[in-house]
Amino acid sequence: TFNINIFLLQQESLDEVYFIKQIDSLGNACGTIALLHAVGNACSEISLVENSGLDLFFKSTASMDPYERARVLEKDDDMARAHSLAASAGDTEIGDIVEEHYVCFTALNRTLYELDGMKGGPIKHGPSSPESLLQVLSKGPVLYLLVPAWNCKGLE
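RE: above sequence
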């Protein structure tokens, strides 16, 4: 049998995890924030183009708290244009009611974290590694239980 206690949520505010709060003024930007969480927590392993919009965003917000990062994102015209372009580039018609919600799951310092800008901070799910991350995420029903109100299409 599966032991759900292993996956009980633990709220943590950790300096080592790059996290952005999804404030109301950012609107329906969960996809953009999930991507920023993914890149922000991989900056030590990837190279961003020097002085690009992403490079400057992460450098300027590195020492900020999640709310300050959200305020910078809110005022970043380049990021807003990129978000609008990406949102309108798809083939799917966008309705008035958005049912999808995107979050980022990342392995950092051998620990699996859920990064959902709608929550108060990173959520620690337990031991993991980049090698075992896909194995952990393959247990889809467990992850769906963690976000029961949303249809997390990004995890299907």
